């Protein structure tokens, strides 16, 4: 409807072959669907196909000849399997060639191509951080061979108040197998959803960008790839000195258009490369192009009213509150987003007052808020009545699906605040505060800015590949958090040392000077050594060891003296509003860090024996559910099966775990050689302890 309204062509949609159902598949194909294999690897389907064909051939051979010859009986099965494999690979190569030619022809004719780059549907309510770039690779091959002049990528985000298949995720959140799509299941689902309320849908189109320009920018940031790239021959007009994309004069008109841009006005013929010395684009750059496209789509996504209320319930009022305070928190968050001061590049996809937003959320999800029985349901009444009603999100063990559903809705906003969540968690970790003590802490807390940035880099390493799209590929991690630090300073969440000195009273400054004079370094000692021994300059940030010939003791000094003056940063715990916002940001990572920590503790079972991957995955999830039933977890949503899968995926990607195929054809998991030592494994587990609230 949106494309028809703006007079644009109907796009062809890349769809998985699992949707090619009888009857429905033909209808989708006539509507523009292009069915492709969901996996680019042929090894898995070939194995089953080879075994199936070999069995059928042997069966037919026995029927044709009840008494086969000795040569036929002794013919090895491997020859037949190898022949089937060669035939299947040839068919698959033919399929890839036809698909590539079909996509090239459509793009030549100017037909838009709609690709869901995430692959499958997100079970956690946030973009899948590992996008599939098979179609983008096919398009890049066409660009490398100059079959296509250029391709414009338009990030598109679709936001729902309530997705239609959220009830289908209930089984998967609890670790149960996914139900396969079927024709009758689709028909039944259509009639079942007719009486369900789903609210509104908002479609947001981001700024289009040139594929050639973006690849040139990404290649300019890869020194090792410059010699292999021919994009850089004419990259002066595609990228500036810092590597940022600069639109040409022809494309500049796109940024001034508020609606869908006119693709016909874009002339990209001057981006054609020379015919000689053509080399394929490195796969690493293609992967970064896919991540950048998904990052822009996430940035364009609008926040719906249901996402906002669920976020406030989980991250601000987990233990319950009155309706009046909940409405006040919703109104405050809406105002901050509309002003764009604290929440940058976040837009709301709804209008109305905070009271209307809460009532609308309760209308769509009546089972996610626990209302006192005497009230029955929330109704728009006077403010005095609302102040007497105490409500809380449903986070009980008996109805854990409601908790997972709240987390699914909340993650639509949480993924947009991943950077703020990482920086707040790093600040709390460096300050040594926890989820329980942060709200009662009203004293000045100094931390090391460089230490906080190091912790942020550690968190990015843990979360960027499994949970969030945090930093775009065209930006450096340190620059990203330096800019975010400055943003926190402008929002009065942290202060620099000069600003803190102005807040201290005269007596406090005199006390600091007195303590500094008392613990001043004495380098003129009789034995020619300093009374304070430290191995390096970094040891000065920490505990100072006082040494003598008789005894060695540890002396704890004021934290303001432990940190170098130019590196000090002050966390504003005196202001209640600033403290509540920092606590809300840090709570975003609470369930993830707790789940990762508990899964890392289960790695001890691999010290003695290797386990099948599926079995170990179920054991980890059972361990979390057991702790949940015993009320030993702080965040109930940490027991979600999807978080457990992401934890194991992370451990494999950072080479803590490795997998192999056993003789019984099962996928087994084992510890890497470095972590088979108990001390090394404990050190890895402590990495999550420092970030666990």
Q: Biggest sheet, strands in spatial order?
A: 2-1-3
What's the story with the biggest beta sheet?
A: 3 strands, parallel
Cα end-to-end separation: 46 Å
Residues in helices, as a percent range: 40-55%
Q: Low-confidence stretches at least 5 residues in length (pLDDT < 50)?
A: 42-52, 224-277, 499-503, 519-561
Query: What kind of assembly state do the chains in view correspond to?
Result: single chain
- Return the average pLDDT rounded to an integer: 76
- Rg (C-alpha, Å): 30 Å
**What is the beta-strand fraction?**
5-15%
Question: What this model shows, in words?
Answer:
- With 693 residues, the protein is mainly α.
- Among the domains are: 40-111; 118-159 and 197-301, no CATH class; 443-521 and 529-584, no CATH class; 589-689, Four Helix Bundle (Hemerythrin (Met), subunit A).
- It is globular, with a radius of gyration of 30 Å.
- The strands form 7 sheets. Strands 2-1-3 form a 3-stranded parallel beta sheet. The protein has a 3-stranded antiparallel beta sheet with strand order 8-10-9.
- The longest helix is centred in the N-terminal third of the chain and has 32 residues, at 77-108.
- Mean pLDDT is 76; it is low at 42-52, 224-277, 499-503 and 519-561.
- It is 46% helix and 10% strand.
